[in-house]
Amino acid sequence: AALFVLFQMVLQTFPSVMREGLVVDLSLNEAGFGGLSSSFYYPYILLQIPAGIMVARFGARAVLITGAVICTIASFLFAISQTANFAEATRILMGLGAAPTVVCALTLAAQWFPARLFPLLAALTEMAGMVGAAIGQEVLGFIVEQSGWRTGMLVCGACSAVLLVLIALFVRNRTDVDGTEEHRPRVAEIKRLLTSPQILSTSVAGGLVSSAGMSFGMLWGVSYFQAHHQMSLTAASLCASFYFWGCLPGMLGSAWLCSRYRNAGQLLAIGAAGTAVTLALILFVLQGQATLSVAIFVLGLFNSTYALAFTMVKDESPEHLSGVAMGLTNMAIMGIGAMLF
To answer: What letter would DSSP give residue 45?
Structure first.
């Protein structure tokens, strides 16, 4: 399930390494390429809460298998796209298939492991996504450079098919093993959860904290360093990449502290304050590539605490509705950070 989280980040970001070939072969202008790239996110974000409901109703295994089938078909269809509209439709399909991945992985973590390990497992799941964003682009970039974007998408389809087999072989719902009847969520319970001030405030807090990383660390940082610090593209990319390296120890460290002291709310607050101060220093004070690289690393350390929002909503929601709560949280993180900011 965590490997699927890694892979869906590859699907999210692959247009960035295929831009030149897509623009030429599909006759795209700048707006058309932007629309093609962003079409993945709309179904992905809108389906987070329904994904949580589906996981509660049908189990993580069935939802993951369905998602893997959709992503496999969509990847192969994208590889043979001849028009922009057809390619955009397949991107929407990818968003549909990838939408439940994080919710499913976190639900399985909650089912199969002790509660004290959940913060660590949530951090590792988010780290899998970070690795997918970083390594996936490098590997795909090499394939696209050597053989073209269609070959790259065929490789994505093959990887998705392998994941489908792995999920079918290894993923099991805990309720299936126990042989107990799963508690089906009722509409009134779901409505009460989604309107809970505690759940909503925690989800929005996670989304607001993540916004600095999603918008600056993952996207606009490179352009900012080029424009305001006169860095080359290579230097700016290297500098911005320190955000990901900061997230890795940040997520593991905050998860360990949370597991040991059960202080997720305090850690998230510290992360929020640290993110704000560090980003302000980067934007208005600091100069020089080495100094900015260190600051970006520290930004990742603080900003990675957003993953603790998953632990908080899990602890605050009934067990059979935890998937819905985590779907709401992931929707806030992706919607506020990746789309609005």
So the answer is: H
